[in-house]
Amino acid sequence: MDNLCVVENCNIVIGGDFNVILHPDLDGNGGNPKRKESVKCIENICLANDLIDIWRIRNPNVKRFTWHQKTPMIQRRLDFWLVSNAMQEDIDNVDVISSLKSDHSAIVLSINGIEIRSRGPSFWKLNSNLLDDKECVFNLMKYPLWNDEFKEVTDPRLFWDLMKYRIRQESISYSKLKAKERRSKMAALESKLNDCQKMCDQDPLPENMNTFEVLKTELAPE
Questions:
Q1: Which domain covers residue 148, as residue numbers?
Q2: Is there a contact between 13 and 83 (Cβ–Cβ < 8 Å)?
Q3: pLDDT of the residue at 53
Q4: How far apart are CA 217 and CA 214, in angstroms?
Q5: Is the same domain home to 107 and 134?
Q6: pTM for the full model?
């Protein structure tokens, strides 16, 4: 396992839960953080393939953790990215962010130089839940206006198609507005959650941990 079967001169990206900490003094908090024998295997793979722990390279003295246990309070950085040393300049961002319904945080790696393909228009379908939204239903109660707009249309099939078109327009416009508001709210909550996790990583007081759990509950899907 000390060497990977890879194409010569290729770049390597390995990420996930390794279930070990590489640096007990930096990657562990609470309990009795120990260096497992299996760490040697990871170090041999890194040495043989010129891999680095990119998050630790970018944050040499920062304590962040990806696994958390409340009772007793134990925190560990078990999840990380190992990348080819030659890729350092290609890494735009590497971070630890909070996740929901899991005792592990998510690890994020952004690599530049990857072509971003533009997406074409997607297929739209009315979300039936909008019919339970009083504001949405109120916006759709414009039949008199549309009826007046299409009063010169004599073909009933064409008239019905035009009415459906107006309903679709209003529904899409309202859905986009609500989606934008929802994304804005989620982004604010996610920012608070990540800031709170950093606080917990540095100072895992009960009140900090309780605030963290409350924010996770607010972000959890219904």
A1: 122-222
A2: yes
A3: 93
A4: 5
A5: no
A6: 0.63
Question: Whose CA is closest to 49, among 101, 78, 20, 9?
Answer: 9
Nearest C-alpha neighbor of 84 from the set 16, 15, 11: 11
3-state secondary structure of 33: coil
Buried residues in 27-64 as b, exposed as e (16+ CB within 10 A): bbbeeebeeeeebeebeebbeebebbbbbbeeeeeebb
Structural domains of the chain, count: 2
- Cβ neighbours, 10 Å, residue 128: 7
Closest-CA residue to 95 (of 112, 80, 115): 80
Which of 83, 115, 147 lies at the terminal end of a domain, its last residue? 115
- What's the confidence (pLDDT) of residue 1? 46
* Cα 1 to chain centroid, rounded: 31
> Do residues 108 and 134 share a domain?
no
Report the distance separating Cα 152 and Cα 83, nearest Å.
67
CATH number where 73 lies: 3.60.10.10
CA 186 → CA 76, 131, 191, 218, distances in Å? 27, 23, 8, 9
Q: Return d(Cα 177, Cα 180) in angstroms, integer.
A: 5
Closest by CA to 19, choosing from 82, 98, 80, 97, is 80
Query: Which residue numbers in the chain have pLDDT < 50?
Result: 1
Q: Residue for token digits 């540095």? A: 202
pLDDT at 21: 93
